[in-house]
Amino acid sequence: MRNTHNFNILIVDDDNDYRQVLELLLSNQGYDTQSASDAMEAMALIRQHEIDLMITDYRMKGMDGIALLNEVRRSNPGISIIVITAYGSVEKAVEAMRQGAFTYVIKGSDPEELLLEIEKIKHFRHLELENRTLKKQTNQFDFMLNTHHGHFRHLIETAKRAADSNANILVLGESGVGKEVLARYIHQHSSREANQFMAVNCHVFSDSVLESELFGHEKGSFTGAVARRIGRFEAADGGTLFLDEVGDMPLSTQAKLLRVLENHEIERIGSNQPLSVDFRLIAATHKNLDDEIRKGRFREDLYFRIATIVLEVPPLRERREDLPLYIDYFINQIQQDLKKQVSGMEPAVERFLLEYRYPGNIREMRNIIERLIVLSSTGTLMEKDLPTPKSPTPATGSGTPESASEASEAFSEDGVAGSFRALRVIRQEAESRHIQEVLKQCDYNVSEASKILEISHRQLNNKINEYGLRTPAGN
Ligand SMILES: Nc1ncnc2c1ncn2[C@@H]1O[C@H](COP(=O)(O)OP(=O)(O)OP(=O)(O)O)[C@@H](O)[C@H]1O
């Protein structure tokens, strides 16, 4: 059974039988449904309920499906729309898509097709929500300009200036330094701000899926292509395309990307109709692309295309002067998010936060502070809730115990508190091994693995980064 909770679908059709069949089909899948036999009734229901998706017949007495679609797009632009049409009026349905319908479905076709389209809509809505949340976060990132680190300040100022141009930007830096945050910051300070920021992580898709993600495909262009799909290049039209982990892109896709950047045109897989696209590319990688070029794994001509401006984000451990700024920022943010008041921290916690080397960079600092706040029952951040051995090993090593032997050192270190920390380390190791095994089982398909592990796609990506797990393409 699909996870369909809290997804409210309005069915509009003057054909009672068809409407009832659809209602039955969708409520059997666990969706909440409302139904209306004409446009007026539909509009009344939209005013009363929070509707996520409207499925409307094209041809109806009175106001037809297209007029209803236009009315809903104007009054409730957040509602996704699918148009149902009879055989023979496909051009009209395509017109409906041009007017803003997500897709069309032919009456009497396999119901599984409709269910798949609904799944897709849910997926897109989820991405949009994530996008909005990240965008809200990005609004607060002007605090980055308060940096005390000369090179980082210069970098942010360059990013802001570069935002005005249309130049392709390459962001380099270790995992978790904030490359995506910087990319969003650039988008937000650019003239494309009102349009999409479309992020694609090249590392999480297998080679063929990556191409279909980027270019989209026509229905029937390969097994499993049950409906037309708009790719990310097209979806980023007018906005910014963020290609994360571009160093992991297979050579064949690199060649195709280069052509798109040269011609500003794409063809969906299974179509030979060129479509012009206009997006600004920001690419990012934690890899050393010079090395990759030398080893023949990255095209030099593509490098020159994507690297008009290169921004290299320094690791957090090289910006020690900024640690107090970030610590305060995250404590403020997280206490607001969790609605929990932080009254202070034990001196050992402060020492730790200021001396730790943060191999996972800003992402790791955020996680550590979040954990300290979640675990604190008194409002004071406590040493016992720190995730690693007490000594932060500021000068050498990563500061995170990486092996069972390090864990067992922590184990013998200081009685009960040490034992808890060691257990935590062992648990993290077990978790990392388990995730690696599941990934392997699923042939490194992150979506499939996240389902088995019962965590979100994003959480799994974070774990992959946190534990430095690499799929074969990343090795
Ligand atoms: N300047 C910043 N201000 C606030 N939070 C930040 C900042 N930079 C990074 N973060 C936090 O760190 C997390 C990681 O950032 P981001 O995803 O941008 O890093 P990344 O370098 O793109 O990582 P990866 O290479 O693993 O994709 C974000 O979710 C965000 O919470």
From TrEMBL:
Under the heading CDD domains, the entry gives:
AAA
What are the entry keywords? ATP-binding, DNA-binding, Nucleotide-binding, Phosphoprotein, Transcription, Transcription regulation
Q: What Pfam families does the annotation carry?
A: AAA_lid_14, HTH_8, Response_reg, Sigma54_activat
SUPFAM superfamilies membership: CheY-like, Homeodomain-like, P-loop containing nucleoside triphosphate hydrolases
Q: Does the keyword Transcription regulation apply?
A: yes
The Sigma-54 factor interaction domain covers which part of the protein? 145-374
In alphabetical order, the GO MF annotations are: ATP binding; sequence-specific DNA binding
Which part of the chain is the Response regulatory domain? 8-122
Query: What are the coiled-coil residue ranges?
Result: none
Region Disordered: list its residue ranges. 383-413
GO terms classed as biological process: phosphorelay signal transduction system; regulation of DNA-templated transcription
* List of residues that carry 4-aspartylphosphate: 57
| Function per UniProt | May play the central regulatory role in sporulation. It may be an element of the effector pathway responsible for the activation of sporulation genes in response to nutritional stress. Spo0A may act in concert with spo0H (a sigma factor) to control the expression of some genes that are critical to the sporulation process.
The protein's name is Stage 0 sporulation protein A homolog
Tell me which species this is from.
Answer: Anoxynatronum buryatiense
Please name the taxonomic classification of the source: Bacteria, Bacillati, Bacillota, Clostridia, Eubacteriales
